[in-house]
Amino acid sequence: RRRQVEIGVVALVYVAASQLTLALYPVQSPPGSLWLQLALTTLSAGIAVAIGVAIGARRVEVRSLRERAESAERERTAWAAQARALERNRIAREMHDVLAHRISLVAMQAGVLDHRGNLSTEENRTLIRGIADGSHQALEELRDVLGVLRADPGRPEPPQPSLDRVPELVADARASGLDVTLTTTVTGKPSDIVGRTCYRVIQEGLTNAAKHAPGAHVHITVEGTAGDELH
Question: What backbone phi and psi angles, to 5 degrees, belong to 159?
Answer without folding.
Answer: -60, 140
